[in-house]
Amino acid sequence: MNRLRIQPLRPLATLPGAGPRLVLAAACAAITLAGCGSQVGGQATGHPQTASTTSHAATPRQRADADAARIIADFPRPAGAVRTGLIASLTSPGVGIGDADVAIQTRWWRVPGPPRTVLAWIRAHLPAGFTPAGSGGGSSQSSPSVEMTADIFALSPVPGVLPQRQLVVTAIPYRGQTALRTDAQVAWLPARSAAERIPSGVRAVTVTPAFGLNQDPRRDRLDHAFTVTNPAQVARIVALADALTVYPPGLHPCPADFGGVMRLAFLDRAGGQVLARFSAQYGGCGVVSVSIGGKTQPALSTYTTSGALFQDRVLAIAGVRWPHQPGAPA
Asked: Dihedral, CA atoms, 132, 135, 141, 145, nearest 10 degrees?
């Protein structure tokens, strides 16, 4: 396994109900990364060719596989680069985003010149749409005396389908030349199963604000809890909730979270049995915690496919206004 220090480090957050992979990633997210999964920040402009190579009718996994294949094929090869088989000192990428729900394509190369020069050439010849998203240095665990350097190049996400797309280039000096490991890594969002959707039979939705750390009685009283029973409005809120996408796997730099949330209970009738519960963050990473039938489900994103905040859409459907956003500083 290779060990690599990535600079700069950013605040990271794990997601509720995100499963063992995030626990492992969090354990590995200290200063030294050892081929563990971690989200590395960085926005990129679009990559039209990559984004359009797969039909929108394809599954998220098929789109991720096609994108990874295109990314690895688009790697800019320096003059004299020769493709090789596995190189023992480069058995793992310098940085990864895990291996669950991630399509990965890997190639190894031998290139004339020292690593610093080779990586500088690659940075200067990136295909359209790629943006530098991080770099670092360290040593190979299998060969501690071997210095490693890695660069991460990101593409913009495909909203609701492919939340992270990147090319990782890891370099070491090798027999008077440079050995490269190139990894195309594309995370996809799995489709939500029937068990992760709100059950049929919802006839009412209660909506309650929770104000977290920034409580201000004068302003908080302006935001009142309410219950929606109009069948058309209930159906629209249920459809909106079912259309939310799974929150991207991995670790993410997040804004401050002061604990403000919108809590929704989906009921079989007003005052009746709770069929599902949602708790949507106003701050932090914008996570929606979900419980259906008393069982925790994968976290969702508060941002709808239109880009609007889930909570704002719920208030608009219900015809209710909350003048003070829960959790917002006074």
From this structure: 120
Could you give the CA distance from residue 69 to residue 51 in angstroms, rounded to a whole number? Answer: 12
- At 208, the amino acid letter reads T
Question: Count of residues for the chain?
Answer: 330
For residue 73, which amino acid is it?
A: A
Residue with tokens 């590995």: 28
Contact indicator for 242, 219 with CB cutoff of 8 Å: no
**What is the per-residue pLDDT across 228-258, written as a single tens digit (0 to 9) for each?**
999 999 999 999 999 888 887 666 677 777 8
Contacts of 289 (CB under 8 A, 6+ apart): 16, 17, 278, 279, 296, 299
CA-nearest of 144, 162, 197, 138 to 46 is: 162
Give the tokens for residue 273: 């049995």
pTM: 0.58
Contacts of residue 140, Cβ cutoff 8 Å, sequence gap at least 6: 2, 3, 89, 90, 146, 148, 172
pLDDT digits over 197-208, tens only? 999 999 999 999
Classify burial at 45, counting beta carbons within 10 Å of its beta carbon; exposed 0-12, middle 13-18, buried 19 or more.
exposed
